[in-house]
Design a protein that fits this description.
The complex is a heterodimer of chains A (115) and B (112). Chain A is 0% helix and 49% strand. In chain A, the strands form 2 sheets. In chain A, strands 2, 4, 5, 6, 9, 10 and 11 form a 7-stranded mixed β-sheet that branches. In chain A, strands 1-3-8-7 form a 4-stranded antiparallel β-sheet, with no helix packed on it. Chain A starts with a strand and ends with a strand. Chain B is globular, with a radius of gyration of 13 Å. The chains are: A mainly beta (115), B mainly beta (112). Chains A and B meet through strand 4, strand 5, strand 9 and strand 10 of A and strand 4, strand 5, strand 9 and strand 10 of B.
Chain lengths: 115, 112
């Protein structure tokens, strides 16, 4: 019974490179959320997706960041031309539909370090 | 703008004590309220979910309540144990959105 799976768990990039973070939701879950946790700060909402649709991206920086959740395969958070300020833990969560809709289940996170 | 405040920011107690963690919202139009624990370097583990029609939830030694009129939630931990040491986070979502707003957490340390 796999939970939310995120990879890679740790990623090191140099400034200007691209980072791709992947998230597979729990089985049966069709809603995916991405959150960012900066050192010593709380989790900040970035984007909410359903299969092939971005529902709410109000927390995404306007530039360099994009997210997708294709019909097949994991959700991907893509950060282009990374800068040191992008260093953070990126968490993915999924939730079911129906009676427990909105209950979040988190992955272990992907920790991005930008050199 | 929705803000979530958790008090205290840090707490250190001897083993066996009962304790209460507090969470308050500036916006009382809460749909779901969820409590999590986070261990250092790890993800978030869901503890309790209080849905709109509910006032409290219990799981083992944990009890969470939600008072929407005052915009407050409390997490009660009975007979605390060293294994309870972690950061506890509350998160609330307004009606019509699944965009949860998180508090900055309470760092709990239970001393053996």
């Amino acid at each position: 019974n796999a939970g939310v799976m995120q990879n890679p768990r740790h990623l090191v990039r140099r400034r200007g490179q691209e980072a791709r973070l992947r998230c597979s939701p729990m089985k049966g879950h069709s809603h995916v959320y991405w959150y960012r946790q900066l050192p010593e700060e709380g989790l900040k909402f970035m984007v909410y997706l359903q299969k092939e649709n971005i529902i709410d991206e109000s927390g995404m920086p306007k530039e360099r960041f994009s997210a997708e959740f294709p019909k097949e395969g994991p959700s991907i958070l893509r950060i282009q031309q990374v800068v040191r300020g992008d260093s953070a833990a990126y968490f993915c969560a999924s939730s079911p539909i129906g009676q427990r809709a909105g209950e979040l289940f988190f992955g272990e996170g992907s920790r991005l370090t930008v050199l | 703008k929705q803000e979530v405040t958790q008090i205290p920011a840090a707490l250190s107690v001897p083993e066996g004590e009962n304790l209460v963690l507090n969470c308050s919202f500036t916006d009382s139009a809460i749909y779901n309220l969820q409590w999590f624990r986070q261990d250092p370097g790890k993800g978030l583990t869901s503890l309790l979910l209080i849905q709109s029609s509910q006032r409290e939830q219990t799981s083992g030694r944990l009890n969470a309540s939600l008072d929407k009129s005052s915009g407050r939630s409390t997490l009660y931990i009975a007979a605390s144990q060293p294994g309870d040491s972690a950061t506890y986070l509350c998160a609330g979502g307004r009606t019509g959105t699944y965009k949860y707003i998180f508090g900055t957490g309470t760092r709990l340390k239970v001393l053996a």
